[in-house]
C-alpha cells in the first residue's frame, strides 16, 4: 500500500473532485438502501389491509424513531389507499422509481467528478516521469532498455489508472453501500444479520487466497512488456542492418519468444484475476440460499419476522453482493497496480547524480578559457581518463585526436557535464563547472555530434531548438553559414518541410549540416565538435568542413577529430592514448616529432 500512498500524492491538486465524489457516493449509498426499504410498504399496505395505519403516529423520542418513521410513511400511504387504491399504487411505485433514479443520478455524478481526478493524476504522473527522464543523467540510460522506459510511461501508467485509480470510484461508494445496507438489515432483523455474518469471513478468506501471487505475476508481465517494446524500438531504428544481414528471422524469433512469454504470464494472471468474480458471486449466492433457509424458518415457523421485511432483507442482502464483488476485484487490481506503481516510482525516486549545487551560480559571459585540471574518470571500473589536463583559451581551437577508446569523446561528455569527473576539476573562467547551474553552463556551449540527432519535425523547428524565438531570417542566416540553405531552399516546403524520423528523408551530409546550423543559430561562445565529419563521404565532408570552418571562425572550439585532415589548422592538437596525453602541439610540430601523431596521419593517408 506504500506505493498506493505515493501515487495518491498526485491527487492533492484535485481534492475538490474527491470531495464532490464522496458527497455523491454518500447520497448514492443512502438512496440505494432506501430503494429496497421502499418495497416494504408496497407489499404491506397494498396487499395486506391489516397493515394499514389510520392514526397519525406521535413522536415518542429518539428511542422510537424507527417506528415513528415507518408508521408516518404507512399512515400517509394508507390515507392515499383509502381515497383511491390505484392512485396509491402509482404513488408508491413512483416513490420507488424516484429513489432508484436518485441513486443512479448520484452514482453517475460520482463517476463524473472522479473522472477529472483520475485523468488529472494520470497526466501529472506522465508529466513527472517525463520531467524525470529529462533530468536524469545520460549514464542512467546507458544501462536501461529504451523499450522498458517507454513501457513505464505508457503501459505501467495505464495499469495504475486501471487498478489504483479505478478503486477511487468504489473506495467510498461500495463500503458506504455495505455499511448502510447492514444498518438497515440490523434494523429489520438483528438475529438474521448476525447469522449472515458468520459466513462472510469464510468468503473473504477464500477470495484472498486466490490473489496472493498476482503482484509477482503482474511485475513479470510489465517487465516482459518492456522487453518486447525494446525489441520493436531496436527493429525500427536498425531496419536497414537487419534487412542487409538477412536477420529478419533472428529478430522475428526474438520477438515471438518475448510475446509467447508475455502470453503465458498474462493467461495465468488474467485467469487468476477472473476467478475472483465468479468465486465471490457463488459464495454470495450461497449466503443468500442460507438466508432463505434460516429466514424462511423465522417467517414460517417462528413468526418473528414479517414476510415483507424478509423480502426486503433478501433484496438488501443481494445488494451487498455487488459492492462486495467490486471490493474483491479491487483487491486484485491493487496487487496488479502495486507492481506497475513500483516500476513507475523506481524512476521517479531515482536520485539524480548530476544536479545543481545548492549554491550554484549562473555562468556569465565567457571571457578567458576552459581549464581541464588533472581529470580522471571511469565509466565502470577501469579509468578512461587519467590525470588529463588541458587549456582551451578563448577564441582558440583545440583538437583531440587518437585511436577509438582513447577517451576523446569522454572529454566532451565531461565539459558539458553529461558526466561528472571522478577526480580533478573542469573550470570555466576559473569557476568549477560543478558550481555553475547546468542550464547556464550548457547555454555557453554548442554541440555537434558524430550522429546527427534530428527530430521528426520541420527543418525550422529542428534549427530553433537552441533559440526558439529566432526569426526566419536568423534561421536562414544560420543555414547559409552551415552550407545548408542551398538544399533546404529546394525542399518542397522549404523551412516547413518535415524531415522524417531522425531526419531520414535527408542524406548524411544534409543532416549534419542541419545539426551545424542548429549550433550556429544558438551562437554559443564555446563549440564542441565530436567527430562531426567521421561518418560522411568525401563530398559531404568537404561541404560540412567548410561549414565548420565558417562556424568556428573567432570562436572557442574543442574538436574531437577522427579525420586528421580536418584539424590541421587547429591552434593546438592533443594526441591521446588510453586516456593520457602522449603528444601535443601544432600540426607541423607534431609531424616533426615523428611519433604517434605522424603514425596516425600516415595510416589515414592510405585510407
Automatic annotation (TrEMBL):
Recite the UniProt keywords alphabetically: ATP-binding, Membrane, Nucleotide-binding, Transmembrane, Transmembrane helix
Note whether Membrane occurs among the keywords: yes
**SUPFAM superfamilies linked to this entry:** ABC transporter transmembrane region, P-loop containing nucleoside triphosphate hydrolases
| Cellular location(s) | Cell membrane
Main localisation, per the record?
Answer: membrane
Residue ranges annotated for the ABC transmembrane type-1 domain, each copy included:
19-336
GO MF entry, a single one:
ATP hydrolysis activity
Please give the GO cellular component terms listed in this UniProt entry: plasma membrane
User: What is the recorded name of this protein?
Assistant: ABC transporter, ATP-binding protein, MsbA family protein
Q: Which organism is it from?
A: Leeuwenhoekiella blandensis (strain CECT 7118 / CCUG 51940 / KCTC 22103 / MED217)
Amino acid at each position: 500500500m506504500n506505493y498506493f500512498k505515493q501515487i495518491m500524492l498526485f491527487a492533492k491538486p484535485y481534492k475538490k473532485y474527491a470531495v464532490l465524489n464522496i458527497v455523491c457516493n454518500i447520497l448514492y449509498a443512502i438512496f440505494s438502501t432506501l430503494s429496497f426499504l421502499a418495497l416494504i410498504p408496497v407489499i404491506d399496505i397494498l396487499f395486506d389491509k391489516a397493515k394499514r395505519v389510520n392514526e397519525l403516529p406521535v413522536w415518542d423520542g429518539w428511542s422510537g424513531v424507527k417506528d415513528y418513521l415507518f408508521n408516518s410513511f404507512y399512515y400517509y400511504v394508507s390515507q392515499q389507499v383509502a381515497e383511491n387504491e390505484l392512485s396509491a399504487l402509482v404513488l408508491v411505485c413512483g416513490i420507488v422509481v424516484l429513489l432508484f433514479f436518485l441513486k443512479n443520478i448520484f452514482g453517475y455524478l460520482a463517476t463524473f467528478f472522479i473522472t477529472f481526478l483520475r485523468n488529472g493524476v494520470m497526466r501529472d504522473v506522465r508529466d513527472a516521469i517525463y520531467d524525470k527522464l529529462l533530468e536524469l543523467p545520460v549514464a542512467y540510460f546507458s544501462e536501461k532498455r529504451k523499450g522498458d522506459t517507454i513501457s513505464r510511461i505508457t503501459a505501467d501508467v495505464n495499469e495504475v489508472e486501471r487498478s489504483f485509480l479505478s478503486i477511487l470510484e468504489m473506495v467510498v461508494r461500495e463500503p458506504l453501500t455495505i455499511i448502510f445496507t447492514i444498518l438497515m438489515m440490523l434494523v429489520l432483523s438483528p438475529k438474521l444479520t448476525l447469522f449472515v455474518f458468520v459466513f462472510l469471513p469464510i468468503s473473504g478468506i477464500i477470495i484472498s487466497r486466490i490473489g496472493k501471487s498476482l503482484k509477482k505475476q503482474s511485475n513479470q508481465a510489465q517487465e516482459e512488456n518492456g522487453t518486447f517494446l525494446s525489441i520493436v524500438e531496436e527493429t525500427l531504428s536498425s531496419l536497414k542492418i537487419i534487412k542487409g544481414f538477412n536477420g529478419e528471422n533472428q529478430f522475428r524469433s526474438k520477438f515471438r519468444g518475448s510475446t509467447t512469454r508475455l502470453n503465458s504470464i498474462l493467461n495465468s494472471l488474467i485467469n487468476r484475476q477472473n476467478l475472483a468474480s465468479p468465486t465471490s458471486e457463488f459464495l454470495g449466492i450461497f449466503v443468500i440460499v442460507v438466508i432463505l433457509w434460516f429466514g424462511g424458518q423465522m417467517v414460517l415457523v417462528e413468526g418473528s419476522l414479517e414476510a415483507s421485511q424478509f423480502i426486503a432483507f433478501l433484496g438488501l442482502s443481494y445488494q451487498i453482493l455487488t459492492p462486495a464483488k467490486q471490493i474483491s476485484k479491487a483487491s486484485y487490481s491493487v496487487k496488479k497496480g502495486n507492481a506497475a506503481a513500483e516500476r513507475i516510482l523506481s524512476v521517479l525516486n531515482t536520485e539524480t547524480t548530476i544536479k545543481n549545487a545548492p549554491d550554484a551560480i549562473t555562468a556569465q559571459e565567457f571571457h578567458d578559457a576552459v581549464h581541464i585540471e588533472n581529470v580522471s574518470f571511469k565509466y565502470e571500473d577501469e579509468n578512461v581518463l587519467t590525470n588529463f589536463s588541458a587549456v582551451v583559451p578563448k577564441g582558440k581551437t583545440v583538437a583531440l585526436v587518437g585511436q577509438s577508446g582513447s577517451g576523446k569523446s569522454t572529454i566532451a561528455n565531461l565539459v558539458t557535464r553529461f558526466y561528472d569527473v571522478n577526480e580533478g576539476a573542469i573550470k570555466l573562467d576559473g569557476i568549477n563547472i560543478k558550481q555553475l547551474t547546468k542550464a547556464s553552463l550548457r547555454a555557453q556551449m554548442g554541440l555537434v555530434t558524430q550522429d546527427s540527432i534530428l527530430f521528426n519535425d520541420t527543418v525550422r523547428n529542428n534549427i530553433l531548438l537552441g533559440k526558439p524565438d529566432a526569426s526566419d531570417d536568423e534561421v536562414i542566416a544560420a543555414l547559409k553559414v552551415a552550407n545548408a540553405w542551398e538544399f533546404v531552399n529546394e525542399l518542397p516546403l522549404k523551412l516547413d518541410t518535415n524531415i522524417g524520423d531522425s531526419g531520414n528523408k535527408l542524406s548524411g551530409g544534409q543532416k549534419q549540416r542541419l545539426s551545424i546550423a542548429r549550433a550556429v543559430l544558438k551562437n554559443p561562445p564555446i563549440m564542441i565538435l565530436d567527430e562531426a565529419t567521421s561518418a560522411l563521404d568525401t563530398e559531404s565532408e568537404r561541404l560540412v568542413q567548410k561549414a565548420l570552418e565558417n562556424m568556428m571562425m573567432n570562436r572557442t572550439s574543442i574538436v574531437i577529430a577522427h579525420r586528421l585532415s580536418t584539424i590541421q589548422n587547429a591552434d593546438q592538437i592533443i594526441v591521446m592514448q588510453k586516456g593520457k596525453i602522449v603528444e601535443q602541439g601544432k600540426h607541423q610540430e607534431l609531424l616533426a616529432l615523428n611519433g604517434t601523431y605522424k603514425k596516425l596521419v600516415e595510416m589515414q593517408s592510405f585510407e
